[in-house]
Input
Amino acid sequence: MGSVDTWVGYWGRLRPGRAAVAAGGCAVTWGALADRSGRLAAGLAAEGAGRGRRIGVRSRDPIRVIEVIAACARLGAVAVPLDPARDQDRLRRIVARAGLFALLTSDDQVGGEEKGAAAAAAGMDEPLLLLHSRGTTGEPKAAVLTHGNVEAVAVAAIAADGLVPADRVGIDLGLAATPAGLAATLGALHAGALIRFGDPAELLGDDDRPTVLVTTCEQLGRPGVLERLGGGGTRGPRLVKAPGPVAGAVRGECRTRAIPFVEMYGLAETGGLILQASPFLAADGLRPLLGQRARVAGGELVVAGSAVSGGGWLRTGDLAVEGQDGSLTIVGRRA
Output
């Protein structure tokens, strides 16, 4: 099983010439991704990066973000993806609190000889990702995920979405550096599926359309997007996913058009994915994914499981109700 560098290395050896990630008109094969992340790890190691060092990455190129995460996994370092869409003031506060050893962008040229670059294999209980999301007060909130947490997120995504190497996972570019987008990326990397980042309307307009599309409620509401999704056995994706909360009108329109739509739920502390609706059930409620748990305590949703950082039950701050079938519905936030 292993961590992100293990997945990239496995597919790099098994299918070196097959495309792994595509964005902005550029495609990178599994072999090239393994080589590039290995060289990046070597370059970072030469500059003193190693176990526990925090490496930030702020780039509008999602391929670069994946390279940094894989390189950090190889070194035992901690990757800190930063959403380039955040306002500058919040980014400065996040960077100041993160204690970064280095902050990489798309333009930084860091590389070296891959041989001998890796530290000893990191344990599954050691940190790999530092994710940020907005807290209830609007202040940046951070959560550290271990290698084990990251693998759990990937496995849960594979099981829930039925991912296989033949899949093409389209991810809204605006979600690329968010916990929800990273959860989709991790599942696809583990499964060996092709990841394509871009504008959903453009992804759906290509001949090589995604079999799974991860986007936002706002994007689904854009003129013409739902029409391109098809449904009812047409050339549309077999699954369309959006982080909640999703407007009821969009959900209803997807149902009318027979679009296999699901709402996903997760926090930074859960790698951005722990609950998901099912396209195979009539109810819209959320259900825990493989290896995850959830319940309502005092009206608040609390979650636990292998994807939750820190272990134990996590209070989400979201108000929820439980249906007779055991599904969960988010109804608001604690004041």
